[in-house]
What does this fold into?
Amino acid sequence: MTEPLAADFPPVPDDEWRAAALKAAKAPEDTPTRSITEDGIEVDWLYTREDALAPDPGGVPGRAPFVRGTNAGTGEDEAAWQIRQQQAHPDRREANKALMEDLEGGATAVELRPDRAARGGHAPGSDAFAATRGVDGTMVSTVDDLETVLEGVFVELAPIAIDGGAQAVATGAQLLALLRRRGVADADAIGSLRIDPLGTLAAEGALAQDPADAIATAGRIAAQVADAFPGVRALAVDTRAYVNAGATPVRELAIAITTGVAYLRAAEEAGLEPARAATQIEFTLTVGTNQFGEIAKLRAFRRLWARVLELSGVPEEGRRSFLGARTSDRMLAGIDPWSNMLRATTAGFAAAVGGAEGLTVTPFDTVVADAVGAAAPGGLGRRIARNTQLVLQEESGLRRVADPAGGSWYVESLTDAMAREAWGRITAIESAGGALGGLTDGTVATDLAEQADRRRGELARRDREMTGVNVFPLLADDGVHPEPADRQAFVRTENDRLAERASVALPDAAEPDALLTTLIDAAEVGARIDELAVLAGWGPVDDLDATGLPTRRDAEPFELLRAAAAGAPADAAADADAVTDGDEGAPGDDDLATVQGVKGGAVSDDGPRVFLAALGPLAAHAAQATWAQNLFGVGGLATIQSDPIEDPSTAGELLRADGAVLAAVAGGRKAEDDALRTAITSLRDGGAKTVYLVGGDDAKAKELGADRGVQQGVDLLEILGDALATLDRPVTTRTETAR
It folds into this structure.
């Protein structure tokens, strides 16, 4: 008989565990061992058998409510999650080369993102086409273009998802036309059309149809796809734009479920019963670095969606839809982008443990590539992204275990709490008119902005830490310098190429009940996406100035600090998105580090700096000095530390010799007030415009004659922004929109 692993160890009382937890947190003995999540859920620091849920709402793996995943068994016989990598290189041949590298390197599915011209349905030769061709996606106009991108791909083995935005019906028709061209029988076709009008409206701010009409169209297409292509999913619910704008996990769950309900109703109104409609929807949730929270979120989603389908009359075995995950854009940084690998790995692990059936890991250099106008993330970024998943699948063995988090009292409790909290929000959204109403009346935007502001405050105070951004900043050059693409050359080439295309005879209009068939037939004979949009009856997106929910990346305020410190012109940093769109062409090499306002530059001793007067012996001030260097480095300020100063009155002479106008004093916890006061006065006399007291609050700083106290919990954005303003390097603002 095998003995338990802990048989030879004496039991540890709960109070000893709690004492150890408080010691690890450096908290007083009377500190409550309980925290509150951003959604207001109480979380204990320690869980015991007494916290086990009874009765267990999770069921068993492979059965409703699918909390424990959709796979019933374990081992090599279970299918691994899809490694779905996105491809958005503007050049079709380069996109094909990159996605073939992905597939040969371990990816098992492809997500193709057409460019903004295609997603908007803009016709070649139009101003809108010129402004959007080759931007944020691959230049696809016809099924022949799609053939070029997917040359060599076995589409009957590797599912293709196409993210066509406002023209997802048209791009989906082209994908289905391609499958037929390749000889794939309709009944054997696999893939995803990713029609998501609400997600598109949130991300891009405009649709080609009235939103309610777009939802109804999505339902009709889902019914037609289900009849003709049973292995293809027509609809998608993607929470990316909402999370980028500030959605918390519970809010994300509520948005995902209510959006799914809207599509479920639309499909049912089109004649598709809920059980079949559920198979037509794929969900993509965003995963970040809160490992246990993200695991619980995915598990809670399946429970919530199973409940919705139960109320819709779906039998137990059908109470599920495909659930994918994508690593968060919000957690990506342009400064020290290598640290993005750490965050992507944590997020990917959470997705795998949480039971995602597909996962897209964003390359670590995505923000920098977007900022400088590069065609796409680099080959190394894509390789690391897919290898992260391969390691999780094969070396870590996560694919071989059903519900790895099952039985964790913490995860089980958090899953239950998230599901209950989200259900309350779901019922409130439905009572107020559903997902569409909250999005169009501004309720969602206002709520998410409040959450993003709160999160920004946590980052500013380091209540939420981000390696390489607000803690442990990389002061040297990070070595990531992608080349900008010449997008105007793409536009010229595309206008000429598409103008040479022979005319295509198309019907005047498509009947709603035969919309999919009509569009596929037109795509097969060469109709462009803009022509398909007109044939469908809605045409292009008219509002070219529309913007979706803003992207509130965690690192952005700190990137702006670094850009200001590097001397980025205020208007250049603010116009980052305009440059990325390429209206004036790609930036020059000399501007890459500063124009976009995401990287700044290497921190050097001869640039913006703070002189640090280190009082007393090294042992006395070393900890404070190191902490101060980290703090000022977050803002791109070098810290020039003096040798140990025995006589505080000489600090000003050292400052004058250096020439800095910002100064800080670090004397350690036991430094005497008189010594600190003397040093501060001397620094004033030496030309300091601002003097900081390291390790003290503002009240103590004022008492001793300094301007500001800097210690754990200060607002970094305020402190460092004021410091840069003193150096005539004001921090600008920049607004990003969801991709």
Q: What stands out?
A: The CA atoms of residues 252 and 504 lie 44 Å apart. The chain is about 45% helix and 10% strand. The first strand starts at residue 34 and ends at 36.
